[in-house]
Task: structure prediction
Amino acid sequence: MKPYTIDFDLLTGICKSGKVQPVQRRVSQMKMQFADPEAAQKAIDSGDPVLYEFSTLLNDEKKGTLAFGSTIIYPGKIGDEYYMTKGHFHTILDSAEVYYCLSGKGFMMMETPEGDVDLQEVHPGEALYVPGRWAHRSINHGTEPFVMLFVYPGDSGHDYGTIETKGYRKLVVERDGKPVMIDNPKW
Ligand code: S6P
Ligand code: ZN
Result:
């Protein structure tokens, strides 16, 4: 592989040259991940909005490489639960990841298979280190797009299944206009 450069907008996280097309995830692809499936169905029926999109500027999945890119989580709620990413463990569980907040603000919800839970709020200019073994989900509780740069080992892989079937132990919902962490009633 040869060295290369690629454009990358530090505010929006978008690759404007179009060399990389973002992957979009809509409510219909995550209906069961939300605590209120009826609210999710309502959102699907009224246009199925994009919850988030991410551009992986490089990922050739080989050992020794670094995958990197950006995630944009849009502002909004399904019921009283904020727009969020699906979330995942890395298939090679020990693989860590670095995030850097470019714009907006939000949370990273993290948990280990043993049940440790950690919620970190990040703002522009702050870096977040997600150690290996911690599943991670980005949540936008703000009013602007929440944009983060990410870098992780290219061979990490993504295990969505565990989260898809059981969900996270905790949820972040809005109560009296403020975000609060509550137990996931489905856990
Ligand atoms: C990959 C990294 C991000 C996420 C992206 C979307 O390890 O954590 O690129 O893939 O934020 O989230 P998700 O949970 O749908 O992959
Ligand atoms: Zn990851």
